[in-house]
Write a structure and sequence with these properties.
By secondary structure, this protein is an alpha/beta fold. It has 13 helices and 15 strands.
Length: about 650
């Protein structure tokens, strides 16, 4: 199976792209984050992979903002000799599509017709393609993951890749057959030892019957326990409601106490304000009287000053000469001395009045400040009262709600108690409802497994006793079959060991040749070949004159691990069934020399083979004078674009 072209629609960073591939090596390069690995991921998804390293859900691979993604592979089905790779499709090209939807629905299309995943797997199995085998498709970081695999996993992966799984399956089938025969032989032998064997068997049936009765008793007890557990749960619910109601009552009482205190405080503040207002009014009246008296004194002074001016003018000799007639005698009160004395008394009294007025002004200002402060305090108290009233109403509503809920809960509790009493007297419950339900389900499962248990044991015993002679003949036949099965297991095991060893011998020679070019030594060998269950593949490598040691995730450096792993893959390639293979960023830890070496080996390995290899690398590798299809990927404004295909 060779891929001629991949068509991506709304897949990861690709909005729409068509990527043509050729026979031989196809190199996908570009900067990090450009969408190189997404191409290989798209191919794997189209081939049926359901779990990826990038995402646990396939819907996460759909381009952001889109509801659906499509990946279409155009497969080469041209004739090779007289036949096509897929005989039932008489076309040069096969269109395999996988559609991913945001709602989690996925489906396959083959030649524009919906098919199941099993149909796709059968098609790929005929072509030798397994997208889950990392020896065929090695995604990002899988070069490192390969070194972590156990030797048993590596061997089975190699068997699957090269098509040797039938040999292992033949051994397993022979072993299963032998196991069945041995089990049958053991059963027949026990029956032939004595008649007691049959009785023991039916005694086992009786034990199962007793187990069934115990389970039924346990089932009834669990129902009783469940009923009282439900009562306990409802009692706890009632208790919780009572506690919540008590807390709400405490809150209500606290609000009432705070309301009483605030009301008392408000009354005191209002009384204080009234006292301040009375005092202010008294000061106001006193000041009014003082102002009046002050006005009278000021008027007296002004009047006296006017009279003094007039007296002075009348006493002037020039004025008297002009008037010819003498002025009458002035009254005693209008004498200048009396007026001046009166003015002095008024001025002195006025000074005292001003002093008193000033004092009253200061007191009035102080009273006004105290009055304003008292008013603010009253306002604050009234706001507190309003808030307390709001809280009080909420508390009353909550109490009513709790009362209703408590009433309902008590009704349900009484119903649960009545129901539980029907199952028996009350018992102490140590488990929760869900745990008891789980036990009931498990018990029901065990009971379901015992539905075939019958009480008619004696009749079955008599019928099986009549089969004694037949079982004796059968025992002899089973013994003969056991010998044949043992020989068959031995023969198939030897065949498996031979083909595996021959394969690894050839791979080992090629592996050593490739390592030699990297100035390294190594070996590929079969470990524990005597036992197929524990047999494994060991890959050894040594660099810089070092002794070959087992390849793992700790001994070698990153570059050494990738060089050894790629050397093994290249040594194995000519034996792999799948014509399509891919590897992602195998050279990320390699030095330039090994990177160039592995690239040349890859070209030479694939050159004469009917295979297609996809290589993904972040570096701009130049395959000088070599045949390679170079594909450059760039990401522009969040979209991956195929910029160049050479």
């Amino acid at each position: 199976m060779l891929i001629q072209e991949v068509i991506l629609e709304n897949f990861m960073s690709y909005e729409y792209a068509r990527v043509p591939f050729k026979h031989g090596v196809n190199v996908i390069c570009g900067p990090n984050g450009s969408g190189k690995s997404s191409l290989l991921l798209a191919i794997s998804v189209a081939l049926g992979q359901s779990y990826t390293e990038r995402s646990k859900k396939l819907s996460d691979l759909i381009r952001w903002g889109k509801d659906q993604a499509r990946v279409t592979l155009i497969l080469d089905n041209t004739r090779k000799g007289k036949s096509r790779p897929v005989q039932k499709i008489n076309k040069d090209q096969i269109f395999l599509t996988r559609v991913l939807r945001r709602d989690g629905q996925y489906w396959f299309e083959l030649e524009n017709r919906a098919v199941t995943k099993q149909d796709v797997e059968r098609l790929l199995d005929k072509l030798g393609v397994d997208p889950d085998n990392m020896l065929i498709i090695m995604h990002q970081n899988m070069v490192e993951q390969f070194t972590v695999l156990s030797t048993q996993e590596k061997l089975r992966m190699v068997e699957a890749a090269v098509g040797l799984e039938p040999y292992r399956e033949n051994v397993l089938q022979a072993q299963k057959k032998l196991t069945r025969i041995l089990s049958q032989e053991e059963s027949v032998s026990k029956l032939l030892e004595s008649a007691e064997q049959t009785l023991n068997y039916w005694r086992e049936q009786y034990d199962r019957f007793q187990e069934k009765k115990q389970l039924q008793t346990k089932r009834r007890f669990l129902e009783r326990e469940l009923a009282w557990a439900e009562v306990t749960r409802k009692e706890e619910a009632v208790k919780d409601l009572e506690e919540e109601m008590k807390r709400e009552k405490d809150v209500f009482e606290q609000i009432e106490e705070e309301t009483r205190k605030v009301e008392e405080q408000l009354q005191v503040q209002q009384n204080t304000l009234e006292e301040l207002k009375k005092e202010w009014k008294t000061l106001f009246d006193e000041r009014l009287n003082l102002e009046c008296e002050k006005a009278r004194n000021e008027s007296t002074i002004v009047l006296c000053e006017q009279l003094l001016k007039e007296i002075t003018m009348l006493e002037n000799p020039h004025l008297q000469a002009i008037m010819k007639e003498p002025l009458p005698m002035q009254p005693k009160l209008l004498k200048s001395e009396n007026l001046k004395e009166l003015m002095q008394n008024s001025a002195g009294h006025l000074s005292k009045l001003n002093t008193k007025i000033t004092e009253i002004q200061l007191k009035t200002k102080s009273l006004e400040e105290e009055t304003e402060k008292a008013s603010n305090q009253i306002l604050d108290s009234r706001i507190k009262l309003a808030l307390l009233q709001y809280r009080k109403e909420n508390a009353i509503n909550n109490l009513k709600r709790f009362e209703n809920e408590l009433k309902t809960a008590r009704i349900h509790l009484n119903e649960a108690i009545e129901k539980a009493e029907q199952t028996g007297s009350r018992i102490a419950v140590m488990k929760g409802v869900s745990e008891i339900l789980d036990e009931i389900r498990v018990t029901d499962g065990h009971l379901a497994a015992l539905t075939d248990v019958s009480e008619d044991i004696e009749r079955m015993y008599e019928s099986y006793s009549k089969l004694y002679l037949e079982l004796k003949e059968k025992a002899q036949l089973v013994a003969e079959n056991r010998e044949k099965a043992l020989e068959e297991v031995k023969t198939r095991m030897q065949a498996w060991r031979t083909v595996i060893q021959n394969l690894l011998d050839r791979v080992n020679l090629e592996y050593q040749k490739i390592l030699a070019q990297a100035q390294a030594v190594g070996e590929v060998r079969l470990a524990n070949g005597h036992d197929m269950e524990v047999a494994g593949l060991e890959i050894l490598v040594g660099f810089k004159g070092g002794k070959p040691v087992l390849l793992d995730a700790y001994t070698q450096s990153g570059g050494e691990r990738t060089t050894a792993t790629m050397s093994f893959l290249l040594a194995l390639q000519q034996h792999v069934r799948s014509p399509f293979r891919a590897v992602d960023e195998y050279d990320i830890h390699m030095d330039p020399k090994n990177r160039e070496l592995i690239a040349k080996m890859l070209i030479s390995t694939v050159k004469d083979a009917d295979a297609q290899y996809i290589v993904i690398t972040p570096s701009q590798i130049t395959f000088a004078e070599e045949e390679a299809n170079i594909i450059t990927v760039q990401n522009i404004e969040g979209k991956s674009i195929i910029r160049e295909v050479a």
